[in-house]
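#struct-pred

JT: dropping the chains for the assembly here, can someone run the whole complex?
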Amino acid sequence: MSDTVPLRLFNSLTRSIEPFTPVHPGEARVYSCGPTVYNYQHIGNMRAYVFADTLGRTLAFKGYALRHVINITDVGHLTSDADEGDDKMEKAAASLGKTAWDIAAFYIAEFKRDLAWLHVRDPYRWTIATDYVPQMIEAAKAIAPAHCYELPSGLYFDVSTVADYGRLARATTDEGEGRIEEVEGKRHGADFAIWRKTPDGETRQMEWDSPWGRGAPGWHLECSVMSRAELGLPFDIHTGGIDHREIHHPNEIAQNQAIQGFDHDHGHLDCAQNSGARIWMHNNFLIDRGGKMSKSAGEFLRLQLLVDRGYHPLAYRLLCLQAHYRSELEFSWDNLGAALTRLKRMVMAIAQLRGVPSAETVRNNKLTPLLAQFDAAISDDLNTAVALTLLDEAVGTKKVPVDEKRAVIEAMDAVLGLDLLTLSRADLRLRPAAATIDEAEIEAQLAKRKEARAEKDFATSDAIRDALITAGIEVMDGDPLGWEWRLD
Ligand code: AMP
Ligand code: ZN
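RK: done, full complex below.
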């Protein structure tokens, strides 16, 4: 893709849209905060990865060589973002009678399956926090003399030792967002642990020796160390959910300032210049008024539940793309159903393009403007909602060379990740887990019904229809989508 329209992105650090200028010409280096693997990810979490993936796909579309890192936190994240309370991993392990390592392996596999379902591409590197502990200890040792102090519970970062602490969160005091000081001896409410000592007389499943005693790294330190190890400081873009703008990312920034000060051998570093990443991007939340997204509330909204109810995962990806990533997005089954219908329409409208080779160049005067407008929309801080309407237009074009039409749809879909040219109508019809009748049986009954109707035997035809309704099958005569039947 030629770089005709410059890419512009909203930077949370400046709260403004800025042109993207890579640190390393031609490359885009991106770090995304990943999950803490003590439980399943809910669909709100998955919105964060759909966003990061769409950003990565856009950077590739704009011609940058993408180096994307997503971390997996398998140790050290406490039950509050301020890094206080119990260790989430150890707590989950204790409550399930398993090792923390088993818990991590299990939820990593579940997470990766959800990502694959959503067509989130594998990053250049998954960084697993426990693989980087020696580097975390080295980083803590390097910054400790100028920036940290030790308490009985761990090594704490003094937020007053860096310039502009909390600038990302727009916090007005060095107490951050009015957090309550829970650890005795902390100099400021916003000070946070970069090393947490295992309390005397206890053993953790995951613990390491350090100059501050046996213990585990702080969650914030993990991301600073892994991003620097894989991307170098400064890198281009750091992403995460909007909640991270308040505590986790300001703390990463403070550490990055300290680390870079150490690298360059000078003290106070300006936050805007030395935050570690040039652009900080945050996706807004998926909201569920039914309260099913709280992991503590028993069954919660995860992708598996959508699939069990017969919704294809890519309908959820489409739902995400219909909203701008910086807007809140309200989840409802109706909205998801509408997204599924939109996806079906697109898939059916281009079914005949599946076997067609793509044209090398697009010259058609109906198609070229659509591609240019698509480029403009996606380059405008990832306006996926507008980009989707342009995809709809491309799908609906008539009397254009099919190979060029396919090339345009392929280019757009490479950014949106909906797999339009591979999916079939049948792929989109999932069987709800609760359904008791199988598809072959439904198709057989429908064939019998068709025969009966052809013979004008309406009594038999109606009886078959009634039996199907009883089994939870809605027969859709005259359905404009040609869908024929649906499990209710
Ligand atoms: P966690 O596993 O809690 O660290 O969250 C993983 C990612 O999901 C982080 O980037 C969070 O900011 C993000 N996130 C959490 N809840 C939501 C939500 N309801 N909507 C969108 N993103 C979320
Ligand atoms: Zn992080």
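JT: nice. The longest strand covers residues 65-72. The chain has three domains: 8-287, 309-416, 439-485.
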